[in-house]
Amino acid sequence: MNTRTDMSDKITEEFSYEFTDRMGRDFQARVCIDADQLVIHVYYGKYRAGHMFCTIRGDELMLGDIFLENAVELLGVPIRRFVCRLFRLPKPTISFRRNGLGSEIMEFLFETVSNRGIKKIVGQVPVKGVAENPKLLDWYRSMGFSVTPKHDDKLWVAEIRRPINLS
Ligand SMILES: CC(C)(COP(=O)(O)OP(=O)(O)OC[C@H]1O[C@@H](n2cnc3c(N)ncnc32)[C@H](O)[C@@H]1OP(=O)(O)O)[C@@H](O)C(=O)NCCC(=O)NCCS
Q: Which residue from 20, 47, 90, 95 lies 20 to 30 Å from 31 (Cα-Cα)?
């Protein structure tokens, strides 16, 4: 683990963590935390697999964005790419969703914030997110969030909230 002090005297903590998904793929999460934010960048070798951005307000962590890539073009296979171009086949891609990585990252977040004075995690779920993935709210529920629907809101479909059990 590393800590550093920036120009505004904010202490920043940086560390990395390894995950394995249900396909047995190994990922590295690079975590950066200061008084105002928590950022996680996730890598699968040379691929950026996704990220999580959160802001911190006192004892509350606001979930900004959690995103895993779904169709990243495969690198380092020029012959396969050539064949695909030649026969007008779709480009070979790789996805990091639906194999438990999102749940692993969320569990890791709970553990990371539980000994940093955070008492609850809150957030809003965008209409667009549920349109793309109708099971998104069920996923948040399965991660222990209470989900309150927001009616008549063009941008947000629900508010989510989860207490953190302090260790
Ligand atoms: C939401 C997200 C982070 C979840 O991560 P993930 O690694 O795909 O989810 P998991 O594999 O941990 O999923 C756990 C469960 O959630 C449900 N689920 C997740 N994505 C689903 C989908 N696209 N369709 C159906 N069910 C889904 C399933 O029940 C799944 O369990 P199962 O695989 O055993 O059936 C990821 O799918 C993502 O980045 N989506 C696009 C961005 C987004 O919507 N972010 C949230 C904005 S608020």
A: 95
Task: Kindly state whether residue 31 falls inside one of the protein's structural domains.
Answer: yes
First to last CA, the chain: 20
- Cβ neighbour number for residue 107 with a 10 Å cutoff: 14
Instruction: Please give the tally of structural domains in the chain.
Output: 1
CATH of the domain at 115: 3.40.630
Q: How many angstroms separate the CA atoms of 15 and 36, rounded?
A: 17
Segments of the chain scoring below 50 in pLDDT: none
* CB-ligand 1 contact for 141 (6 Å cutoff): no
List, for residues 21-42, the tens digit of each pLDDT value.
Answer: 999 999 999 999 999 999 999 9
**Using a 6 Å cutoff on CB, does residue 100 contact ligand 1?**
yes
Residue with CA closest to ligand 1 atom 6: 102
Is the residue at 149 inside a domain? no
Distance of CA 5 to the CA centre of its chain: 25
pLDDT confidence of residue 139: 97
pTM of the predicted model as reported, rounded to 2 decimal places: 0.89
Complete DSSP assignment for 85-100: HHTTPPPPEE--SSSS
